[in-house]
Specification:
Elements (H helix, E strand, L loop, with lengths): L6 E4 L12 H10 L3 E8 L5 E3 L22 E5 L2 E5 L7 H6 L20 E2 H9 L6 E6 L2 H7 L8 H11 L9 H5 L4 E3 L2 H8 L6 E5 L13 H4 L2 H7 L5 E4 L1 H4 L2 E2 L2 E2 L5 H7 L3 E2 L19 H12 L3 E4 L2 H11 L8 H16 L2
Parallel strand pairs: 1-2, 1-14, 2-7, 8-9, 9-10, 10-13
Antiparallel strand pairs: 2-3, 3-6, 4-5, 11-12
């Protein structure tokens, strides 16, 4: 596990290339140099923990084409809004395994649609542990209020309990930078403050508090963005977490697709000894602000060297890895190309004097 530069966090795997949250997407991310593979954890009707982002299956599976599941469509309240669709919590693990995953965005490669299935949390962990190098995991306790309302376990445990039980089963434990953590790196993430507090009583592994758009209130405590990013709240939550995971446009707002002056959130987080791991970095032009001239390397340069973040959630693990190897490589991997970049930077600095 490299510690000398910001973490490359494979957001749902290398999902810019391969459908999200699949074994193939995670294997591709590891191949491309991810430090951590990130996943969202939900629960099936029969209490199995799975890797899947949405509480509905509509966007990224073939469920709508499956006639045998036509009568499963429901409307439930999710994070203060009524949502209609085929919900994960209405399917057993066996049924979920029959579904095929597809690419979320139509402008991305569609050739892998229908080739892969939903995987379990345990299968995800095995992918990281079976890698030929140390690869961290970065699981999210996804929509815990919704899951705890609709899924019940026979032993009376909650979603968060089952989540931690799985981590402990595979040996994940230890505070940030401890010997155990270095062997099996882990960040636990959640948008729900009460879930973070609950799991803090069960496992000492580092946690990251996720922060949504300024218009979105927390799903469990109904707090505003301004409340949860205040200095008082950062001091409070800092007792339980090692970092924040904000949406990047809350750190540097945009107007007309141009960046506005950065907020002071990163500086204040660092003052509270909290890391900042923003989300999500994507290569496509529709996700790049005009300031970056359609160049994802320029975006990474800005966020790493100007804003000063400590990790980045990216859909394109390989792009971030190549950028970092060019600009701040492992000494053992230093290439002629990276040396040319350094020489060019030195010349530019000299000419600027």
């Amino acid at each position: 596990m490299q510690m000398f530069r910001p973490y490359n966090i494979a957001h749902r795997g290398s999902n810019g290339e391969i459908p999200e949250e699949t074994a193939a997407a995670y294997l591709r991310a590891i191949e491309e140099g991810a430090d951590f593979i990130e996943t969202d954890i939900l629960a099936s009707k029969d209490g199995a923990l799975i890797c899947f982002h949405d509480v509905t299956l509509d966007e990224t599976t073939d469920v709508a084409k499956r006639k045998e599941f036509a009568n499963r469509k429901r409307t439930y309240e999710v994070e203060w809004f009524n949502v209609t669709g085929w919900f994960v919590v209405d399917f057993t693990l066996e049924e979920l395994k029959t579904l095929k995953v597809k690419q979320r965005y139509s402008f991305r490669d569609q050739q892998y649609n229908g080739m892969f299935s939903i995987i379990t949390f345990e299968e995800f962990i095995s992918i990281a542990l079976d890698a030929d190098r140390t690869v961290g995991i970065y699981p999210e306790i996804k929509d815990p209020v919704f899951i705890n309302k609709h899924v019940k376990w026979a032993d009376g445990k909650k979603f968060e309990d089952k989540f931690v039980d799985t981590l402990l089963k595979y040996g994940y434990k230890g505070q940030y930078m401890s010997e155990n953590w270095m062997k099996q790196p882990l960040f636990i993430q959640s948008f729900a403050p009460t879930s973070i507090l609950h799991v803090s009583k069960l496992i000492d592994s580092p946690k990251v508090f996720l922060i949504d758009d300024i218009t979105v209130r927390t799903q469990d405590t109904n707090q505003s963005y301004w409340e949860i990013t205040s200095d008082d709240y950062l001091a409070y939550i800092g007792k339980y977490v090692v970092g924040l995971g904000p949406w990047k446009d809350t750190i540097v707002p945009a107007a007309g697709n141009y960046l506005m002056p950065p907020s002071d959130l990163v500086a204040r987080a660092h003052a509270h000894n909290l890391q900042v791991h923003p989300y999500t970095y994507r290569n496509e032009n529709q996700f790049l602000h005009f300031n970056f001239h359609q160049d994802p390397y320029a975006e990474y340069d800005f966020w790493i060297n100007t804003v000063g973040v400590d990790g980045l959630f990216t859909d394109f693990t390989g792009t971030l890895h190549r950028y970092q190897e060019l600009t701040f490589p492992h000494r053992k991997d230093e290439t002629a190309n990276s040396l040319l970049v350094k020489i060019s930077q030195m010349i530019s600095a000299y000419e600027g004097l």
